[in-house]
Amino acid sequence: MTTPATTIDRALQHVYKEVLRRNPGEHEFHQAVEEVLGSLGPVVKRHPHYLAERVIERLCEPERQIIFRVPWTDDAGQVQINRGFRVEYSSVLGPYKGGLRFHPSVLLGTVKFLGFEQIFKNALTGLPIGGGKGGSDFDPKGRSDAEVMRFCQSFMTELYRHLGEYTDVPAGDIGVGGREIGYLFGQYKRITNRYEAGVITGKGLAWGGSRARTEATGYGTVYFANEMARHVGRSLDGQRVVVSGSGNVAIYAIEKVTEFGGTVVAASDSSGYVVDEAGIDLDLLKDLKEVRRERISRYAEEKGGDVRFVEGGNIWDVPCEVALPCATQNELDEEAATTLVRNGTHIVAEGANMPCTPGAVRVFQEADVLFGPGKAVNAGGVATSALEMQQNASRDSWSFEHTDERLGEIMRNIHESVVTTAEDYGRPGDYVFGANAAGFTAVADAMLAMGVI
Ligand SMILES: NC(=O)C1=CN([C@@H]2O[C@H](COP(=O)(O)OP(=O)(O)OC[C@H]3O[C@@H](n4cnc5c(N)ncnc54)[C@H](O)[C@@H]3O)[C@@H](O)[C@H]2O)C=CC1
Ligand SMILES: O=C(O)CCC(=O)C(=O)O
Predict the structure, then answer these.
(1) 83 CA from centroid of ligand 2 (Å)
(2) Bridge-based pairing state of the strands 96-102 and 168-171
(3) Are the beta carbons of 394 and 134 closer than 8 angstroms?
């Protein structure tokens, strides 16, 4: 007997209302949950036991949420207090896995939205990793290395007791790169007296890191976008591309687009964007952002000529055929999406987590723009973290070529799984539905197999 659609819709609406009631004010978390629930109607119709066993409600509640005080001393000798978070969301497919974000905007709801997304993303990789996320409202911008180190040491002094290579394995995200991972791992090692390399990923190559992890999210984003193009008989070669952000994901997305023959004409940071019609000069951008930690306006100052910096403004005003939002959540709204559609954009692939608002996604889908959601598109980063864990477990170190090849294969497999799931449900080309349905089904089946947990 099948469950009528209206009963299912009502049940899903009830789940969502409960999420709103139990998590007041956590708007980003609400948004992420609503987006996934919006795809689950047909899945539940086909598998009514997911409703009966209350799998969806269970998934809307993290397994564990940790909030802690992070006191540290700044260079002036003043005591500073930040708040630390780790949301251990789901461990049915493997140890909790997901990055740490250090940014002043981080609240519990931010970490919950990221952790929720991470469950399904990690499931899509097909690798044995559960979902989690963490972070702090600490702002590394303008802080000395010594201050960042003291903060990281204090953060890890509390968090270490929850971590372990079989328990919970953090990595980087906004504001957390190689420098922070080094300080965090150093403190973990010091407290535990164990060289447990697999407890954190994104490590330096000399101390247990994986080749291609730095590049993986950006490269993976472009591998996925390339598959989207190929699927409709197109290619990235010769395309005019805009990439927002200029951090880890953006930089390596720009690098790979260029290798595929596209031209990235604009990049941004939170102060504004630059337009360089000749194509973003990656050596300069890497030096500015990875070494000198400068604002993006310096790019225009140092390049000169026709390169322009637009303070504030909206990078999505720059016409492009392919748009890769790689900065932060809700950076591309309905109005920006309408501008992109008007300017002839035909592929949008989310390198960041949830960068497009629901209104923007609707605009793209109604205009038949190919739209790839972050949980599929940017999964290459966490997938390569899982490859780093494999190398740590086997005391091995793979070549760049081998790791990059595995990354490419994983991204092609995710694309295939998303596309075939969407087709199987009669929704060809709907990447949002395909990613949610495929990711959810993998997690839900594992939960059911393990009983009421
Ligand atoms: N690093 C990773 O492996 C992964 C990162 N992501 C997501 O990718 C996005 C970017 O992360 P990362 O590159 O790692 O961080 P990052 O800290 O290296 O770079 C973030 C970039 O976004 C810019 N940015 C932040 N807020 C902005 C705003 N309001 N407007 C314009 N630009 C803004 C920053 O200036 C910076 O250039 C985030 O959504 C993150 O969750 C997703 C998967 C994996
Ligand atoms: O590499 C990881 O474990 C986490 C990456 C991440 O935070 C993400 O996929 O959003």
Answers:
(1) 20
(2) parallel
(3) no
According to DSSP, the residues that pair with 322 across neighbouring strands are 241, 347
Residues 267 and 342 grouped into a single domain: yes
Asked about 203 being catalytic, the answer comes back as no
386-398 b/e with 16+ CB inside 10 Å = b? bbbbbbbeeeeeb
Residues of the chain with pLDDT below 70 are 1-2
* Residue 191 is assigned to a structural domain of this protein: yes
38 and 123, same domain (yes or no)? no
Q: Are residues 185 and 286 in the same domain?
A: no
User: Under DSSP, is residue 106 helix (H, G, I), strand (E, B) or coil?
Assistant: coil
Q: Give the CATH number of the domain where residue 357 resides.
A: 3.40.50.720
Looking at residue 239, its pLDDT comes to 98
- 165 domain-assigned: yes
- Number of other CB atoms surrounding residue 49 within 10 Å: 10
Q: Is 173 in the pocket of ligand 2 (CB under 6 A)?
A: yes
Of all protein residues, the one whose alpha carbon is nearest to atom 5 of ligand 1 is 173
Smallest CA separation from ligand 1 atom 35, residue = 269
Spacing, Cα 450 to ligand 2 middle (Å) = 25
Do residues 190 and 236 both lie within one domain?
no
Distance (Å, whole) CA 266 – CA 325:
11
Domain membership of residue 176 (yes or no) is: yes
Q: What angle (nearest 5°) sits at the alpha carbon of residue 114, between those of residues 326 and 228?
A: 45
Count of structural domains within the chain: 3
Catalytic: which of 97, 121, 133, 375?
133
Same structural domain, 245 and 373: yes
Residue type, 120: F
- Give the residue, out of 173, 252, 326, 411, with the most ligand 2 atoms within 8 A of its beta carbon, to mutate for a pocket test: 173
Q: What share of the chain is helix, strand, coil (3-state, %, to 5)?
A: 50, 15, 30
d(CA 245, CA 331): 10
Together in a domain, 51 and 80? no
Q: Is the CB of 201 under 6 A from ligand 2?
A: yes
Looking at the structure, do residues 369 and 225 belong to the same domain, yes or no? yes
Q: Does residue 338 share a domain with residue 286?
A: yes
- Collapsing DSSP states into helix, strand and coil, what is residue 52? helix
Domain with 16, as residue range(s), is 5-59
Report residue 442 as tokens.
């993998």
Decide if 76 is inside a domain: yes
Model pLDDT for residues 391-439, shown as the tens digit of each residue: 999 999 999 999 999 999 999 999 999 999 999 999 999 999 999 999 9
Across the strands, what pairs with 71?
Answer: 81
Q: Is 97 in the pocket of ligand 2 (CB under 6 A)?
A: yes
334-383: pLDDT as tens digits: 999 999 999 999 999 999 999 999 999 999 999 999 999 999 999 999 99
Task: Say whether the ipTM exceeds 0.95.
Answer: yes
